[in-house]
Each structure stands twice: as C-alpha cells, then as structure tokens.
Amino acid sequence: MTIPGFGDSVEISNAEYAQFQQLIHKIAGISMSDSKRTLLVGRLGRRLRHHKMSSYSDYYKLVTSPAGKQELQQMVDLLTTNETYFFREPRHFEFLTNTILAQHPAGQPFNVWSGASSTGEEIYTLCMVLADKLGPRGNWSVLGSDLSTQVLAVAEKGEYMLERTRGLPQNYLNKYCQLGSGDKQGTFAINADLRSHTKFRQINLNQPIPDIGKFHVIFLRNVMIYFDNPTKRQVVSKLVSKLHPDGYLIIGHSESLNGLTEQLTVVQPTIYRLS
Description:
It is a single chain. The chain has about 280 residues and is α/β, with parallel strands linked by helices. The protein folds into two domains: about 5-80, Chemotaxis Receptor Methyltransferase Cher, domain 1, CATH 1.10.155.10; about 90-275, Vaccinia Virus protein VP39 (Rossmann fold), CATH 3.40.50.150. It is about 40% helix and about 20% strand. The protein contains ten helices and ten strands. The chain has helices at about 15-30, 35-50, 55-65, 70-80, 90-105, 120-135, 150-155, 170-175, 190-195, 230-240, and strands at about 110-115, 140-145, 160, 175-180, 185-190, 200, 215-220, 245-250, 265-270, 270-275. The strands form two sheets. The protein has a seven-stranded mixed sheet, with helices on one face. A three-stranded antiparallel sheet has the order 3-5-4. Strand 4 and strand 5 (about 185-190) form a beta hairpin. Helix 5 packs parallel to helix 6 (about 120-135). The N and C termini lie far apart (about 60 Å).
C-alpha cells in the first residue's frame, strides 16, 4: 500500500499500534487502550512529519534505537501530557487546609510531593495554600515531579498566559502572582517567594523512586487511571514508602485504591492515610 505524504496522512496498522502500546507500558506503566489510537496518531503524526517518515514502523525503530533517546523522551512527553489547572478538585485543598494543616504542629517542617505535576498549576496551588496557612516564608516545601521533561520546564519557570488562570481566585492572583508588562503583557508569573519553596525533578513512577525524602502529603491525581492493577499496586507501594507516619495520599476523583493496598486507610473518597 502506498501512503501519500508524511505524518497525519500516515495510517497506523494494528501491529504498529500494538508496538507503541507495549513501549509506553514498559516505559511509563501506562495501559493505552485501543480507543487512544486517534490520540497517538494525532500527537506522533507531527514527529513523523518532522523526520519526513512515511510509516510508524520507521518511527518506532528510531525511538527504540541507541541514537533515538532524545526522540524517545519527546514521544513520552507527547503521550503523557494531560489537562491541568489551578485548584482542580478544590475539596482536596480544603481538606489540606482545614484538616491536615490544622492538625500539624506549629513550626514543624511540612513537605508535599506533587507526583504528576504537569505544567505546575497543582504545585503552585499547593504553594498558595501553604503560604496562606504557614506563611510565605514558613518551613514548608513542595516537590514537583513528572515523567515529561517538557512540562517540568514550564512548571519550573512558573510563567503562564493569562488565559491559564482557570480556577485561580482573583485574590490569589493579586497576592501571589506578578502580571507581565511590556513584551510580557498578557502573562503572569508566580512570585519568587513561592517559587523558592519548590523543587522539580523528573521521576518515572514505573521505575525505582530516587532518594527524595519523606512527605506529609503526596498528591498523585488522575494518573493511576492509566495503569493496570499490577502497576497500580507497585506504584502505591512506592508512594507509601515515601510517606511520614500518618501521612496522606490524595488521588483523583475518578480513582480508587480499593483492593490495592492494606497500608492505607480511607479518610474520605480519594483521600487516604497511612495506617
């Protein structure tokens, strides 16, 4: 079969799609269903155009070759980037403020890990909540990690278009952000005081977790829906090992840890505490 052009005009065969399903599962633990075929073609088609390739088999050979490590990361970035916005699932931040922080001993360090931080909106939401409760120069920190280096670069910069203020209360925009001017008009940046409490690191939850310390709260929301049950169990076990005694794990509203671990107790749906 002759395929005209490159990229989006290239069809992907069942066998080729299966190769990418296996590859992304091996790398990231993500189970990509057959319904995601259009998404994969839409996102990787541009890479085929870039390399002037006429088949997904050629692209697969590239990303699995020793010379294709950079392109492999590009592929992972494209296939693992998900929607995020400030104060997404707000009741989690209400629980953090009214229950977890209210019970935390005054003056003691408080550490949070955002395990799928994407472009940073979750990290800086946490920073705003912690600054409000513990002070902008208090003894607290937020680690942001993601598999995608592309989104981590955006998060670390902490600079966004004003269109990205979805979910961000006006008083927080005024208090913790700086509006851009001149050639940066139409943007806003997170204040340096907040960013000084953050660290960023690429972490693959499907691999051994590096020595990143212990945390009072771990946010891993809307990620495990992409994992099969064996992968979920492995990931949860790794997260539990990074919690302080009585620490909390918070997951997405469409997720559950039912049957995956006996180490965590349900506090309320999507919020778990180390037993």
